[in-house]
Amino acid sequence: MAEKIHKCVSCTTYTMNEKCPNCGEATILPRPPKFSLIDKYAALKREAQKRELIEKGLY
Which domains does the chain have, with CATH numbers? Predict the structure, then answer.
């Protein structure tokens, strides 16, 4: 059976275990969102990225 990599939410450590070896918290399976050419939230993502760049002074 193939094992999958897990990620700890609290300390962002990657592991093969169900519990984080560093902090003991439960881990999740990090999966990217499904790709779609018709992205309903594209405008919101661009707006958030623009805000973030403005806050950092890069825009």
Answer: 6-56 (2.20.28.40)
Structure tokens at 37: 């050419």
* Tokens encoding 12: 């962002």
pLDDT tens digit sequence for 2-55: 578 999 988 989 999 999 989 989 999 988 878 888 888 889 999 999 999 999
Torsion of CA 22, 28, 29, 35, to 10 degrees: -130
Q: The tokens of 1 are what?
A: 């059976």
Please say whether the beta carbons of 17 and 5 come within 8 A: no
